Structure formats: C-alpha cells, structure tokens
Amino acid sequence: MDEAVTGPADPAAGGDPLRWVRGWRRMVLAAGMFVYPVVTAVGVAQNSAGAGAVAGYAIVVAFCGCYVLAGAAFVRRHLPRLWSSLGAMAVLSAAALPFARNSALYLFAVVASFTAVVVRRYIVAIVTAGALVCVLVPWAVRPWHTGPGWLEALMMIFTTLTVYAFAEIARANLALREARAEVARLASEAERARIARDLHDLLGHSLTVITIKSGLARRLAASGSPRSADEIAEVESLSRQALTEVRAAVSGYREVSLAGELARGRELLSAAGVVADLPTAAEVVDLAHEELFGWVVREGLTNVVRHARATRCAVTLSATHVEIRDDGVGRPASHGNGLAGLRERVAAAGGSVEAGPAAPRGWRLRVSLEPADGSRA
What we know:
The chain contains twelve helices and five strands.
C-alpha cells in the first residue's frame, strides 16, 4: 500500500499527513465536496419528475453516505472499505445520469478527486478520463439535446487538481516536520557526543597527570624530601585547572540556543493545542543576542502554555528585538520569578522589556536591544 493511503505508521512521527486539518478544519474541507451532490440534486429537479425524481434524490443521498464512509476508511487506512466505497460512488454517479443528466457529472468529479488523492501516480490518467467522460457523454446521449460538456470538463479538471494540490501540501508539511525533528535529534546527539569527547579528553589527560604527581608526592613524603610539598601544590593547581576546563566544556551544553528554543517551543505549543507561528530560522538575529533571545522565547512560550489559554501564538524576530504575542485571555502584568529574572537578564544586556495585554486581546512580550557589533548583514 505504498501510495494507497497517506500517513506514516508511527503516530509519534507526526501522525497522518492531514494532521494540519484536524477537527473543524478537516470537516470544512471535506464538507466542501458536498456542494457537488447538491448541484446534482438541482439537476434531478430540473430533468426528472414523479418517481424518477424520487429515484434521483435517493441516488444522491446514497452517494453522500458512501462519500462519508470513504472518508472514514481513508482516515483509518482501511483499504478494502475505501475501495468498495469509491466503487459504489462511481456506480451511483453513473446511475444518476438518466435523472440529473449533465449535473450528474459533478458526482464523477468527487470520485475522480478522491481517487487522485488515493493513487497519486495515476493523476494524469484520472484527470484525462474524467474530462473525456464530461465531454463525450452529453454529446453521445442525443435525447439530452446538448453538445460536448466543455464546462463540466473544466470543472472536473479544476476540482481534481485542486484537491490533489491540497493533499500534496499536506504531505510536504509532514515531510518538513519529520525533517525538522530529525535535524533536532541529530543536533542533540552531536552535542552529547561533543560533551562526551571533551570530557574524555580533558579528564583522561588531567587525571593521569594528577595520579602520577600524587604518587610522586607520596614517595617523596615517605623519604622525607621537601619536594613533596611542591608536588602537592602542583597537584592542587592541576585539579583546579581540570575543574575549570570541565566547566568550560559543559558550558555549551547548559547554554540556551535560540534555534533550539524555537524548535522546542514549536513542539511545546503543538502538545498544548496552540497553533504556533514561529520562525523557522534565527539567522536574522545578531550573534551577540541569540542566547538572550533564546531565554526570552523559553520564558514567553512557557507562560503562554501555563497561563494564556490561547489558541494561537506568534513569535517575530529581527536583529535587535523579539516579540511573542498570543490571542489568550490577557492578564495584568506579572511579577513572577520568571519574568523578573528575564528583566534582569535584559537589563544587564542594556535592553528593555515590554509585557502586557495586547489589542484586541491576548498578551504581548517584547524585548528590544541595541544593535551589536558584528551583527549579521
């Protein structure tokens, strides 16, 4: 089932490719296709009467039911049920032709669009076949008194390609999310490897020297040599130097990275059900400000998740400022430890903090700094 149903098997990797249209968004996109059965029902009213009209309406209702079943099977990745539902939709589309005439071709557009999403490799064949059906059927059925269905053919091509494009955008979004997660994982592994390598090199060398010097001092002390005190002093100096080097080695692990905080913040907001509008790169920020802005992003997004009850959060960056804005309930200015500590950091860097309710609703946190020497162009 390589291209039969989209979506990775591992939900932790991002779920199905249409995850970006969960809830009411997905329902709106799917419900939009019900416009075509409505057009077909109008065609039934125009071209049939009595028992024929009742039969036509029943076919349209049955088609809508099969469409709902096909959508449920697609989401649940149940291939047999999906294909049986699509087959029933195709049969019902053909059955509607005597009652709705040209308008029944709108049902074929729904079938073609759904099939194009399921089997992407046949998109050209599906569009071509659908367009030919729309052109030839009205022309071939003489009692309808119509020529080739050029308008219906354009409708078929446009609808199928539009639905296919939406599905491809969803797949691209999923691939991008997986790529970002992989980049973050590789960066974390590389950092752990750096720490392990530096600690091994530093401690291996320093402890070896300390061991040798300590053994020498012990032997000198046993023989009563005054050099033992010098050796002990040198061991102390080496220990202090090793401690300094270890602290320097792990400082990179403890530092806050703006890019890392943006990546973690995106996952945090997603887990909290907040739509995240975050930059994908931090190159616009001055090098000297990246760590501080990382702290701002960490504190701001944490407060959004904890207190805002927001549905959307946006972060904007420039060379000298970072701003976090949400659409939550808003609240009086906070004097908690987190924001107080952030104000101290920003003040030490010569910047300013603005925090308070935003118009028309929500909360706004903005940190501004003076341009730093060596800023990126």
